[in-house]
Amino acid sequence: MAETENNIAIPQDFDSLKTIILERKAQLPKRLRQVAAYALDNPDEIAFGTAASIATSADVQPSTLVRFAQHFGFEGFSSLQQIFRARLRERTPGYDERLKALSGNDHSKLESGSIFNGFVAAAHRSLDNIASSVEPEAFERAVNILAGAETIYLVAKRRSYPISGYMAYAFGKLKVKYQMVGTAAGIDDDILAMAGPQDAAFAVSFSPYASESVNQAKLLANRKVPVVSLTDSAFSPLAESSKVWFELVEADHAGFRSLSASMAFAMALTVAIAEKRRRVSEDHLIE
Amino acid sequence: MAETENNIAIPQDFDSLKTIILERKAQLPKRLRQVAAYALDNPDEIAFGTAASIATSADVQPSTLVRFAQHFGFEGFSSLQQIFRARLRERTPGYDERLKALSGNDHSKLESGSIFNGFVAAAHRSLDNIASSVEPEAFERAVNILAGAETIYLVAKRRSYPISGYMAYAFGKLKVKYQMVGTAAGIDDDILAMAGPQDAAFAVSFSPYASESVNQAKLLANRKVPVVSLTDSAFSPLAESSKVWFELVEADHAGFRSLSASMAFAMALTVAIAEKRRRVSEDHLIE
DNA sequence: GCAAGAATAGAACATACATTCCAGATTTGT
DNA sequence: ACAAATCTGGAATGTATGTTCTATTCTTGC
Q1: Residue B1: predicted pLDDT
Q2: How many CA within 13 A on the CB side of residue A206?
Q3: Burial classification of residue B122, based on how many CB atoms lie within 10 Å of its CB (0-12 exposed, 13-18 middle, 19 or more buried)
Q4: In chain B, how many domains are there?
Q5: In the list A159, B69, B120, B157, which could disulfide-bond B80, CB 3.0-4.6 Å?
């Protein structure tokens, strides 16, 4: 009898099922892998279809579906199907739908609620936008520059400051040497004077551009420190001082621009830098 | 033969079906009205259940379900069920597709690109999550507390610090009096000593909880300062000191938790507070 | 209060369904 | 290259399911 993986718990929710399928997908036999791919691509079909109809459109035999389910510890196809159905059932209504539900009774509730809603939506839009506007090659170049630096100088003011604040925190955790520029007033020039070509800088500035940040980036560039920057326009004064720069237009709600995409970008950059360093030092050991 | 209402078009989507059911509900025979009520209250059950199981939980005979469907022009129960299923299908939040589009682009070719991808996806997930976990009522209460405060104290350390950093920036722009707690070491206690019941505090802390933040929140609560907090677990030590607290679990990529949802939340809260103050002062002028 | 008509419950039916089974094909290990 | 094990396709099977049918109960109009 085929092993039903008794030792491993049967997934009870869609997310863990998905994870397990992805984990084991590679080692699955041909037809079962075919089912795995189909299932993850067409979860709705699995939820609503019959074994026969699903089998047809996945181009396998119904029995294969049963075997697939049993491979993951389910009794049969039907019990696996329950997971796919539960996914649709349990999908929580989402904020705006609940907001609609309580409409009428209190106007102020609606107002605060729609503000919340608006910011979440703006954040989503921003993320969609960044996903399509950041060039992988540019990102890779930025990572290379910063990963190769001795010290990473972080330049950001005002609205951008939380971004560099997060990066400082994460760099600290990841043991990446960094230096924030512009925390205490007055000593910035002294700090910048220590930077050299062996270092690198990451500058963030959105319009209206803080002149301080722009000047500091310029200064760094003059000192042959490679600068990577994140800004919101190709005409940003930051761009001309930068080896690599990213144009990131955050969506806004009621005039307040989101920071979610910048934050995601910063996190990705931070971790990618640390990851690259780790890999480089490993490669070095092997050689 | 019973009339099948040939003259009226058979509803093809859930909304029109719902409308028609509501219209005719009053003139329906007893058992059919019972089914109508059940169907509108438990659409998910209709979508996934079998005629027998639905009949049992609606306390009617399976045949009644068939007759119900036929009354509205459907051939049988199954065709009516399709409408309920289509409803769940269509509600699919175009979001899966966006993620697919993400993994489809050439980002994933490069390692750094996949890190980038991962963080964008995590941010999306976080936002979805926050949208379904924040209760509009709780949000409104939080806004009221903070909008009514004389000074808003911002408590956050480490990973949460960028959140309060952004709020400080925005409050400054919006002319809302605030005070950050925990920037310069040592003077925290002096700052907190000034807080009173006429003020309020907003604390952010995720596990592992910074003991400093927890203590400060406790201190504020003892001084009768209402505390609103953002944390990631119902068991967070922050929760007990808080009048209102929000549980926000950020999705993570490679163990690094996103901040995008927290950021969106903070922005929404900030703006909602300012908006409420503006409206209150306007109302005051009118009176 | 009685008859005519509609509505309902529950059993009977036909079929659509998931599952099992087995022979043949394919992969894996030696 | 051979044997063993695994995987796969397709038909067989028995159950679960939607639907139909009919006797009975409940409304409705006079």
Answers
A1: 39
A2: 18
A3: buried
A4: 2
A5: B69
- Out of B158-172, B187-201, B215-229, pick the least confident: B187-201
Distance CA A60, CA B267 (A): 50
Q: Is the pLDDT of residue B24 over 90?
A: no
Query: Is B78 strand, coil or helix?
Result: helix
User: Could you tell me if residue A242 is inside a domain?
Assistant: yes
State whether A190 and A82 are in the same domain.
Answer: no
Average pLDDT score, chain B: 81
Chain B residues touching residue A139 (CB < 8 angstroms): 110, 112-113, 116
- Give the nucleotide with minimal C1' distance to the Cα of B33: C7
* Cα–chain center distance at A112: 28
List protein-proximal bases of chain D (any atom < 7 A from a CB). 6-11, 16-21, 27
Please indicate whether residue A185 or residue B87 has the higher confidence score (pLDDT): B87
Do the Cβ atoms of A143 and B112 come within 8 Å? yes
**Domain extent at residue B231:** 109-286
Residues B259 and B128 in one domain: yes
Residue after which a domain boundary falls, among B90, B120, B147: B90
Whole-angstrom Cα distance, residue A210 to residue A88? 47
Distances in whole angstroms, Cα of residue B81 to Cα of each of B14, B52, B122, B145, B241: 10, 13, 35, 47, 49
Does A84 lie in the same domain as A194? no
From the list A112, A124, A260, the residue facing B263 with the nearest CB is: A260
Is A264 close to B115, i.e. CB distance below 8 A?
A: no
User: Residue B198's pLDDT is what?
Assistant: 94
Domain identity same for B171 and B118: yes
Question: How many Å apart are CA B273 and CA B265, to the nearest integer?
Answer: 12
* A53 and A182 part of one domain: no
A152 and A279 belong to one structural domain: yes
The answer to whether B180 and B187 are in contact (CB under 8 A) is: no
**A5-20 tens-digit pLDDT:** 444 566 777 878 887 8
Chain A residues in contact with B264 by the CB 8 A cut-off are 119-120, 122-123, 258, 260
Residue B193: pLDDT band by 50, 70, 90 thresholds?
A: confident
pLDDT, position A265? 94
Q: Which residue has the higher pLDDT, B182 or B154?
A: B154
- Establish if B140 belongs to a structural domain: yes
CB-based contacts of A254-258 (< 8 A; 24+ apart in sequence): A254/A115, A254/A118, A254/B271, A256/A119, A256/B170, A256/B267, A256/B271, A257/A122, A257/A159, A257/A206, A258/A119, A258/A122, A258/A123, A258/A125, A258/A126, A258/B263, A258/B264, A258/B267
Q: What's the Å distance between residue A243 CA and nucleotide D21 C1'?
A: 82
A88/chain B closest Cα distance in angstroms:
7
pLDDT at B192: 84
CB-closest option in A92, A93, A120 to B127: A120
Q: How confident is the model at residue A233 (pLDDT cuts 50, 70, 90)?
A: confident
Whether the per-residue pLDDT at B247 is higher than 90: the answer is: no
Residue B153: φ, ψ to 5°: -90, 130
